[in-house]
Amino acid sequence: MDLKQQKKVGINIVGSFILGYPGETPKEMNETIDFSIKLDPDYCQYSILTPFPGTPIYNKMNKEGLLESEKWDDYTVLKSVINYEKMGLSKKLVERKLAKAYIKFYTRPKYLIKHSSMIKVIMKTIYRSYIKPTVKEETPKGWYKSM
Questions:
Q1: Residue 95, Cβ density class (10 Å: 0-12 exposed, 13-18 middle, ≥19 buried)
Q2: CA distance 19 to 26
Q3: Please, is 16 exposed, middle or buried when counting C-beta atoms within 10 Å of its C-beta (0-12, 13-18, 19+)?
Q4: Mean pLDDT across 30-38
Q5: Selection from 110, 125, 121 nearest residue 40 by Cα
Q6: 14: helix, coil or strand?
Q7: pTM, whole model, 2 decimals?
C-alpha cells in the first residue's frame, strides 16, 4: 500500500528524518527538509544525528574524536553531541536546520488547513518557548535557546 492509498483509508503517515550526518552539507539538509514536505506525511519528526553508545556510528565517531560529550543527558536528538566544527560545519548551523525543518513543515498554510488542530499545538509551543520566557525575562530552556 503506497502513501496515497494509506491516506485514503485513514492511516496517518509519520515521516522521520535525520539531519547532520557526517559529510552532509547545508544544501543537502535543505533538500531533506524539502523532500519531507514533498512527501506530505501527516506528521514529521526531525532529529539531529545522535550516535548512541554501542552503535557502529558511535564507535566510529568516538574513535575519530568527533564526540563532545559522554553524558547521557546530552543525548536528546534535539541538540548536537557531535563536534561538527571538525567536519567543516557548525553545531549551531545543524541545530538551526532542525528548527527550520519543524517550522517549515508545520507552518505551511496547506498543512494548517488540513490539520487545524496543530494550530493550537504550535501556538502553545511558541508561547512556552519564546513569549513566556521573554515576558518573565528568563532564558528559554531547550534546543531553541541557541538560535
A1: buried
A2: 9
A3: exposed
A4: 97
A5: 110
A6: strand
A7: 0.79
